[in-house]
Amino acid sequence: xxxxxxxxxxxxxxxxxxxxxxxxxxxxxxxxxxxxxxxxxxxxxxxxxxxxxxxxxxxxxxxxxxxxxxxxxxxxxxxxxxxxxxxxxxxxxxxxxxxxxxxxxxxxxxxxxxxxxxxxxxxxxxxxxxxxxxxxxxxxxxxxxxxxxxxxxxxxxxxxxxxxxxxxxxxxxxxxxxxxxxxxxxxxxxxxxxxxxxxxxxxxxxxxxxxxxxxxxxxxxxxxxxxxxxxxxxxxxxxxxxxxxxxxxxxxxxxxxxxxxxxxxxxxxxxxxxxxxxxxxxxxxxxxxxxxxxxxxxxxxxxxxxxxxxxxxxxxxxxxxxxxxxxxxxxxxxxxxxxxxxxxxxxxxxxxxxxxxxxxxxxxxxxxxxxxxxxxxxxxxxxxxxxxxxxxxxxxxxxxxxxxxxxxxxxxxxxxxxxxxxx
Length: 423
Hints:
The protein has 423 residues and is of the alpha/beta class. The protein has helices spanning 20-29, 38-42, 57-63, 66-69, 75-90, 116-127, 138-142, 146-155, 170-183, 200-208, 248-254, 283-297, 316-328, 342-345, 352-366, 380-383, and strands spanning 5-14, 17-18, 34-36, 49-51, 105-111, 161-162, 189-196, 239-247, 260-269, 306-308, 337-339, 402-409, 413-420.
């Protein structure tokens, strides 16, 4: 079998907006979600800015019962449940606490590290010999698959329900894993996505590595500068993105809204050789991933309207653009338009791929390409490969037919997905 795979629902909890409608407006208007956090200053972080979804108590009560909220201390689960349930509802699928198991539906929802704050709380309680106060939910909040488990308590999916983890490529990988399962006829629909915890206990290691910017604590919105000559590191972020992938036959039968089609993609690793390392991708692996994704999608390189890159605001941005140019065999004005969501949200780590996939699909369904904040001083090595208008500072409103989305993670792992307008 080789079934066509379409996207019928989406949800998001991002630093600059929560909910699809608000997120779409934030993208079009170039709204930043990066803010200064006094807690990071108190803890003597060099980088005291970050991107974190703003979740009100009222919103929490729309997704969690009072019993569930009691003892809930895992931001990743909060973001993932909000995004996942929104996507499921957006797809017109039922959420019935007394409903039967849905054997045709599954969940592939990834994370990098989950329940850091819950772990910290548990360590203190154990050290104080108060294990009884850990509560009955400490395990589900700290196990990696806690997010897919928590989501399934609401959705009752009977197909594959699992959590993947591949650093910053986790969310894009989840989408491709779901698409492969649906393509082969093993599932009718899968909720795919990823989430990341917030806070100093997640971001502290990166601050220690000196790869976060520290000169923008008084100008938070200027801190994330993908493709800029003055980029000095990524701004840490968090959140969740979710997409309902479904086989076309099922979607049409239900009369579902179709945002876009998953045309194809590719997952690989550079093997941490030939320039690839724990923190940097092997360029050959990246280029193979791009070429194989295009082949799998059955398109030509010059049919790509836009590239939503990984582009984290580090020295690797120029290398990433060079890899795209080499793999596509295009240069200058021939290159697709390029953007990076991280200029608006920071780097959402294991949530980045899924949040950026949602942004990529919105560009196709609503025919716009969001701009790159803080890219006014384009890096000279990038400007040598693409013309200035291909890296817009503000949103462009035009027909968008194909978007290529890439994610490259720690450990030299790569994922590239090709989304297309549904015909």
